[in-house]
Protein backbone atom coordinates (compact mmCIF):
# COMPACT_ATOMS: atom_id res chain seq x y z
CA UNK A 1 0.00 0.00 0.00
CA UNK A 2 2.87 2.36 0.79
CA UNK A 3 4.25 1.84 -2.73
CA UNK A 4 0.84 2.54 -4.24
CA UNK A 5 0.72 5.97 -2.60
CA UNK A 6 4.50 6.59 -3.01
CA UNK A 7 5.16 6.97 0.70
CA UNK A 8 8.92 7.44 0.77
CA UNK A 9 9.15 8.07 4.54
CA UNK A 10 8.95 4.46 5.66
CA UNK A 11 10.85 4.74 8.93
CA UNK A 12 9.88 2.14 11.52
CA UNK A 13 8.70 4.87 13.87
CA UNK A 14 6.07 5.83 11.25
CA UNK A 15 4.90 2.29 10.49
CA UNK A 16 4.60 -0.59 12.90
CA UNK A 17 2.69 -3.74 13.82
CA UNK A 18 1.41 -4.69 17.25
CA UNK A 19 -0.77 -7.50 18.61
CA UNK A 20 -4.09 -7.28 20.41
CA UNK A 21 -5.47 -10.58 21.71
CA UNK A 22 -3.19 -12.44 19.29
CA UNK A 23 -4.38 -10.43 16.27
CA UNK A 24 -1.96 -8.22 14.35
CA UNK A 25 -2.80 -4.53 14.02
CA UNK A 26 -1.03 -2.33 11.50
CA UNK A 27 -0.42 1.34 12.21
CA UNK A 28 0.72 4.06 9.82
CA UNK A 29 1.20 7.25 11.78
CA UNK A 30 2.68 9.61 9.17
CA UNK A 31 1.46 9.91 5.58
CA UNK A 32 2.91 13.34 4.89
CA UNK A 33 5.50 12.07 2.40
CA UNK A 34 3.02 10.66 -0.10
CA UNK A 35 1.52 11.21 -3.55
CA UNK A 36 4.66 12.69 -5.08
CA UNK A 37 7.93 11.31 -6.42
CA UNK A 38 10.15 8.95 -4.50
CA UNK A 39 13.87 9.57 -4.64
CA UNK A 40 16.75 11.16 -2.81
CA UNK A 41 16.40 14.26 -0.67
CA UNK A 42 16.75 16.51 -3.73
CA UNK A 43 14.47 14.74 -6.23
CA UNK A 44 11.62 13.46 -4.08
CA UNK A 45 8.40 15.39 -3.55
CA UNK A 46 5.20 15.39 -1.52
CA UNK A 47 1.68 16.03 -2.74
CA UNK A 48 2.90 16.46 -6.31
CA UNK A 49 0.28 15.12 -8.76
CA UNK A 50 2.54 15.35 -11.82
CA UNK A 51 5.43 13.68 -10.02
CA UNK A 52 3.15 10.94 -8.69
CA UNK A 53 1.66 10.21 -12.11
CA UNK A 54 5.10 10.01 -13.76
CA UNK A 55 6.49 7.59 -11.18
CA UNK A 56 6.73 3.93 -12.10
CA UNK A 57 4.72 1.64 -9.79
CA UNK A 58 5.56 -2.01 -10.49
CA UNK A 59 9.28 -2.53 -11.01
CA UNK A 60 9.69 -6.31 -11.48
CA UNK A 61 7.42 -9.34 -11.39
CA UNK A 62 8.24 -13.03 -11.34
CA UNK A 63 6.10 -16.09 -10.67
CA UNK A 64 6.16 -15.64 -6.90
CA UNK A 65 7.11 -12.06 -6.06
CA UNK A 66 6.69 -8.42 -7.03
CA UNK A 67 9.10 -5.54 -6.59
CA UNK A 68 7.57 -2.09 -6.45
CA UNK A 69 9.44 1.06 -7.39
CA UNK A 70 10.68 2.88 -4.30
CA UNK A 71 13.58 5.24 -4.22
CA UNK A 72 14.46 6.65 -0.84
CA UNK A 73 18.25 6.53 -0.77
CA UNK A 74 19.52 9.78 0.73
CA UNK A 75 21.67 12.21 -1.20
CA UNK A 76 25.25 10.85 -1.03
CA UNK A 77 26.81 13.77 0.93
CA UNK A 78 24.43 12.94 3.81
CA UNK A 79 26.39 9.73 4.41
CA UNK A 80 28.16 11.70 7.17
CA UNK A 81 25.05 10.95 9.26
CA UNK A 82 25.64 7.19 9.04
CA UNK A 83 22.62 6.00 11.10
CA UNK A 84 20.20 8.11 9.04
CA UNK A 85 21.83 7.07 5.76
CA UNK A 86 21.69 3.38 6.70
CA UNK A 87 18.05 3.64 7.85
CA UNK A 88 16.93 5.51 4.69
CA UNK A 89 18.80 3.11 2.43
CA UNK A 90 17.12 0.07 4.05
CA UNK A 91 13.68 1.61 3.46
CA UNK A 92 14.03 0.96 -0.28
CA UNK A 93 14.01 -2.77 0.40
CA UNK A 94 10.58 -2.68 2.06
CA UNK A 95 8.87 -2.76 -1.33
CA UNK A 96 10.94 -5.65 -2.68
CA UNK A 97 10.13 -9.39 -2.73
CA UNK A 98 6.45 -8.88 -1.95
CA UNK A 99 4.54 -12.14 -2.37
CA UNK A 100 2.58 -11.87 -5.61
CA UNK A 101 -0.50 -13.31 -3.90
CA UNK A 102 -0.38 -10.51 -1.30
CA UNK A 103 -0.15 -7.83 -3.97
CA UNK A 104 -3.09 -9.36 -5.83
CA UNK A 105 -5.06 -9.53 -2.57
CA UNK A 106 -4.50 -5.80 -2.03
CA UNK A 107 -5.56 -5.10 -5.62
CA UNK A 108 -8.74 -7.11 -5.12
CA UNK A 109 -9.51 -5.30 -1.87
CA UNK A 110 -8.85 -1.83 -3.32
CA UNK A 111 -10.71 -2.78 -6.50
CA UNK A 112 -13.91 -2.73 -4.47
CA UNK A 113 -13.62 1.05 -4.11
CA UNK A 114 -15.72 2.99 -6.56
CA UNK A 115 -14.29 5.80 -8.66
CA UNK A 116 -16.40 8.20 -6.63
CA UNK A 117 -14.98 6.93 -3.33
CA UNK A 118 -11.43 7.36 -4.60
CA UNK A 119 -12.17 10.84 -5.93
CA UNK A 120 -13.85 11.78 -2.63
CA UNK A 121 -10.65 10.92 -0.75
CA UNK A 122 -8.72 13.52 -2.71
CA UNK A 123 -11.55 16.02 -2.85
CA UNK A 124 -12.02 16.02 0.93
CA UNK A 125 -8.25 16.37 1.37
CA UNK A 126 -8.54 19.75 -0.31
CA UNK A 127 -7.09 19.04 -3.73
CA UNK A 128 -8.23 21.03 -6.75
CA UNK A 129 -10.60 19.39 -9.25
CA UNK A 130 -7.69 18.91 -11.67
CA UNK A 131 -5.57 17.27 -8.98
CA UNK A 132 -8.49 15.05 -7.94
CA UNK A 133 -8.83 13.91 -11.56
CA UNK A 134 -5.14 13.10 -11.88
CA UNK A 135 -4.76 11.36 -8.56
CA UNK A 136 -7.94 9.32 -8.93
CA UNK A 137 -6.96 8.22 -12.43
CA UNK A 138 -3.47 7.18 -11.28
CA UNK A 139 -4.72 5.31 -8.19
CA UNK A 140 -7.22 3.41 -10.33
CA UNK A 141 -4.47 2.57 -12.81
CA UNK A 142 -2.25 1.27 -10.03
CA UNK A 143 -5.09 -0.82 -8.62
CA UNK A 144 -5.49 -2.23 -12.13
CA UNK A 145 -1.79 -3.11 -12.20
CA UNK A 146 -2.17 -5.02 -8.94
CA UNK A 147 -5.16 -6.90 -10.26
CA UNK A 148 -3.30 -7.79 -13.46
CA UNK A 149 -0.49 -9.56 -11.58
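^ C-alpha coordinates above, recovered residues below v
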Amino acid sequence: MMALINNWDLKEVNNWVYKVDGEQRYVVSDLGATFGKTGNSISRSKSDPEGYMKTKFVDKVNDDEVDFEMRSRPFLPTVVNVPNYRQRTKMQEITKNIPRADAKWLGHLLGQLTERQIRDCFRTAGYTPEEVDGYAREVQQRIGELNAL
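Residues 112 and 143 are 10 Å apart (CA to CA).
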